[in-house]
Amino acid sequence: MRRIVAVGLMSGTSMDGIDAALIATDGEDVEAFGPTAFRPYSEDERAVLRAALAAATTLTDRTARPGVLAEAERIVTDAHAETVEHLLAREDVDAVRVSLVGFHGQTVFHAPARRLTVQIGDGAALAKRLGIPVVHDFRAADVAAGGQGAPLVPIFHRALVRAAGLSGDVAVVNIGGVANVTRVAADGSLIAFDTGPGNALIDDLMRERTGAAMDRDGLMSLSGQVQAQTLAELIADPWFDLKPPKSLDRDAFSRAPVARLSTADAAATLAAFTAESIARGIALAGGADRIVVCGGGAHNPAILRQLAAMSRADVTTADAHGWSVDFIEAQAFAYLAARNRAGLPISFPETTGCPEPMSGGVLSLP
Ligand SMILES: Nc1ncnc2c1ncn2[C@@H]1O[C@H](COP(=O)(O)OP(=O)(O)OP(=O)(O)O)[C@@H](O)[C@H]1O
Ligand SMILES: CC(=O)N[C@H]1[C@@H]2OC[C@@H](O2)[C@@H](O)[C@@H]1O[C@H](C)C(=O)O
């Protein structure tokens, strides 16, 4: 395929907002990173999204939008359209120069064992409003074929690792609401899976105890003490020893074990829980010489310090390699949309457990 300019859009499990990023790619190589934009959800919008997650637990049909799910889908679609319109206007980019949008949508339910994964967001409506073809619904085909439907970013991580010429075995770790790892071995082979919690438990603790949306710069976690017994209780969950492929829904783990702790100790212990489950995941993947961290958790020194202490690898953040800590997932969905148009697979037995390399995503034309 020729090189195209694509916009990628990600609204992740943290539900902090929408990341948008332009890239130039032929679906194999990333030829250039372009401008980015972030559009936070308002507190009201976030409350609707949280209600949608609760409502979605009873879904059996991935296309049904009962009750609050219909309102949540409208909010998600409109907010994504606004984000792209803002980005293109700010950068003075004419929509005709953009060939494609990769639209992840918002995951409201993920249970691959039940062959069900639900991302809300109306791709057809977005294509019409923007006047740009949109690829959306990236996870459904993989899950229908028996895969986990996640993580999908690994093939993008590998493209970045190869282009950077990083030596040795490299683990790219994304710390979003949930955390996931991609291990790119020195021989180019790939293994990827979700490792456990990212920031979601810490965000939920902070909202409940202080009303803040996050533990900004890890200040609360850094002021507390990791409670070893509680951490041991959290990490004793047999899920962490399960062999990949494996993936998680946002609320797969409970923060009940930290309920009796002070806010500072609870935050410190949850940050250590995230770090230890990532370190275990990297070991399960075969270990790494280098760990490159991306996602919002890369801004939390409490997580990063614990991770560095628990692993013997060289730990850096994505920015140190010229990649983007905050927009790597949005860039990945632009890349995955381009792969869809190029007829290239987006998921693999080694990343989602699907039976064979699979294409993914649905195209909606304006
Ligand atoms: N300055 C900061 N200090 C501490 N934590 C931060 C900071 N900035 C972002 N975060 C954390 O990162 C989260 C957002 O991360 P990110 O945008 O990577 O997640 P996501 O894309 O929503 O999730 P996922 O990757 O699971 O889909 C916030 O909710 C917050 O917990
Ligand atoms: C079902 C779902 O939306 N999963 C997300 C979530 O957030 C992080 C982790 O869990 C990852 O598996 C996935 O997102 C990234 C973008 C992925 O598919 O690679």
Automatic annotation (TrEMBL):
Gene Ontology terms for molecular function: ATP binding; kinase activity; phosphotransferase activity, alcohol group as acceptor
Protein's GO biological process: 1,6-anhydro-N-acetyl-beta-muramic acid catabolic process; amino sugar metabolic process; peptidoglycan turnover
Enzyme class of the recorded protein, top EC level: transferase
Biological or metabolic pathway of the protein: Cell wall biogenesis; peptidoglycan recycling; Amino-sugar metabolism; 1,6-anhydro-N-acetylmuramate degradation
HAMAP family according to UniProt: AnhMurNAc_kinase
Family: Belongs to the anhydro-N-acetylmuramic acid kinase family.
Record-given protein name: Anhydro-N-acetylmuramic acid kinase
Source organism of this protein record: Kaistia soli DSM 19436
Lineage, opening ranks: Bacteria, Pseudomonadati, Pseudomonadota, Alphaproteobacteria, Hyphomicrobiales
